[in-house]
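does this look right to u?? uracil version
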Amino acid sequence: MRAVDIIRKKRDRETLSEEEIEFFVKGYVEGTIPDYQAAALLMAIFLNGMTDGEAFVLTRTMMHSGKVFDFSSISASKVDKHSTGGVGDKISLPLAPLVAANGVIVPMISGRALGHTGGTLDKLESIPGYKTDLSPEEFEKALKTVGVAIIGQTEDIVPADRKMYALRDVTATVESIPLISASIMSKKLAEGIDGLVLDVKTGTGAFMRKYEDAKKLAETMVAIGKSFGKKVYALLTDMNQPLGRAIGNANEVRESVDVLLGKGPEDVTNLTIELGAYMLFIGNVAESIEDGKNLIKKAIEDGRGYEKWCEMVRNQGGDPDAILKEDFTKTKYVEEIKAEKGGFLSIIDTFKIGVAASILGAGRAKKEDKIDHKVGLYMHKKHGEKIEEKDVIFEVRGNDPEKMKEAIKWLKESFIIVEAKPEARPLVYEVIS
Ligand code: URA
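got this back:
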């Protein structure tokens, strides 16, 4: 078999065979197929797509390129959640311990900030001492003792995605439904889970801005998951404004703790309850979604979710008490963006809010950039809220005046003030199973 023939076939819109996909992925991981041929095939897939069968084989081959966890010695159900990425999306933080507090094991392997979106690992690393790089043995032990661990991808988990993702990032081939699906699902399926809840974001702060694209992505990932015999639900959720009021890293951890203590923002709390209900239902702990919602609410009310969070943080070397201290989110400078007139707030471009947070230092412009965990934004007003002239809309917290100036420019373009109250958008648009 030759790589050039496989590239030509996809270029000419033909369907690749199982053997061809396996030959290509294996060759690329082992280094016998060079970057330039892999880039050509990725672009052909980007332009011409893949059938569901091809996407399934691609996922399976990528998943088996490295370690696949087997947690069958743990009898309880193992269920994870994955979000396709958004701004202010800190849901994994309160969700994982709330689900574990109800008896479902959560083996969560998370990612870092990507483009304008935040990353769970970067948020967790703002907690002093928190280790995201547990060894496979430590990961398994954490699941057996605590019931939940949130860690990063190690060298030996899906190396094919590691290599292909880096290549896609620099060849403009990220936004492809089969490539995103195979990338996400290969990593999730390597976690040794029984079920998965996907939070597929749509709107101005999502990678899939258009609803139809997000829906197709959700359907493709659900179909792949089912082909592997897993229980999978996808919730199509709104990303036309940030989730919650805090955007950054340390401040998002603090807001997540507020959710666990029963005083978090309504949208983050409700989405946590919604996704948690599906996880408990898939994990055979809840009899229905309604039952699942009640179980999650109860774990917030009686403090079991917060206790499980503290146990998880301590088990991974972190200090949960540090999060409650004032200096956890303290920056050198704070600036406010105020309303120039009264009316209602309309968020028109959440992407720009994500870029502003990243410019402040909450994300990276280059792979090697260091995150400034304390910087970030606080939204005093959310979409649709009434505002008076001079009300504070955004609080900008930074450590570098130049970056703050630049971030403020982006933020000023992210919203308008309108006379009539804009229509409220649903948090969850549709559930695909
Ligand atoms: N997240 C991933 O893990 N992979 C993609 O391709 C896109 C988002």
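The mean pLDDT is 96. idk if thats expected tbh
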